[in-house]
UniProtKB/TrEMBL annotation:
Cell location: Cytoplasm
Family the entry assigns: Belongs to the FKBP-type PPIase family.
Key words of the record: Chaperone, Cytoplasm, Isomerase, Rotamase
Naturally occurring in which organism (per UniProt): Thermodesulfatator indicus (strain DSM 15286 / JCM 11887 / CIR29812)
Record keyword Chaperone present: yes
Coarse class of the protein's main subcellular location: cytoplasm
Cross-referenced Pfam families: FKBP_C
UniProt protein name: Peptidyl-prolyl cis-trans isomerase
A single MF term (Gene Ontology): peptidyl-prolyl cis-trans isomerase activity
One of the record's GO cellular component terms: cytoplasm
GO BP annotation list: protein refolding
Swiss-Prot/TrEMBL catalytic activity: [protein]-peptidylproline (omega=180) = [protein]-peptidylproline (omega=0)
Job description of the protein: Also involved in hydrogenase metallocenter assembly, probably by participating in the nickel insertion step. This function in hydrogenase biosynthesis requires chaperone activity and the presence of the metal-binding domain, but not PPIase activity.
Length: 158
């Protein structure tokens, strides 16, 4: 067996990956170019990084992440009614607006509707309550404690 075939991802390794994230079959994030990720560093959610351990170059790893493991469940209590003057004029429903609370802290919210001097806004994260599907293509592995000739680099198809 070739030495390269034996390389599997372990915590602390640097890996070259491409990824995309879907929610309800809609792409919500994607890497335009391959990125370097140190496994266990916390760049991605722990469940995703942990799922990469044991995999090899050329593999695609698919991880389903429940709402509890990212932005939480959708909370209907986070829908509030505010005076419409807090909303910039010309803002359309579905747009993200910034609302200042009574303590001066600004919070992002999604404008649901405006009517009769009142605006309905949703302070839930747009991905709250959705299961995320991470699709990660492993393009290369650089071991955390090996010399340069032991490295497997992604070359060719990128």
């Amino acid at each position: 067996m070739d030495k390269k075939d034996a390389l599997v991802i372990e915590p602390g390794d640097e890996i070259l990956i491409r990824y995309r994230v879907l929610a309800n079959k809609e792409v919500v994030d994607t890497s335009q170019e391959p990125i370097v990720l140190r496994v266990g560093e916390g760049k991605f959610m722990p469940i995703v990084e942990n799922a990469l351990v044991g995999h090899k170059t050329g593999e695609r790893v698919i991880v389903l992440v429940s709402p509890e493991e990212h932005y939480g469940k959708y909370d209907p209590k986070k829908i509030q009614v505010v005076p419409s003057e807090k909303i910039p004029e010309g803002t359309n429903p579905g747009s993200i607006v910034k609302i200042q609370d009574e303590y001066g802290v600004v919070h992002p919210a999604i404008l649901k509707k405006v009517e009769e001097g009142l605006a309905v806004v949703d302070f839930n994260h747009p991905l709250a309550g959705k299961t995320l599907r991470f699709e990660v293509d492993i393009l290369g592995i650089k071991k955390k404690d090996s010399s340069s000739e032991d490295q497997e680099e992604a070359r060719g198809e990128q």
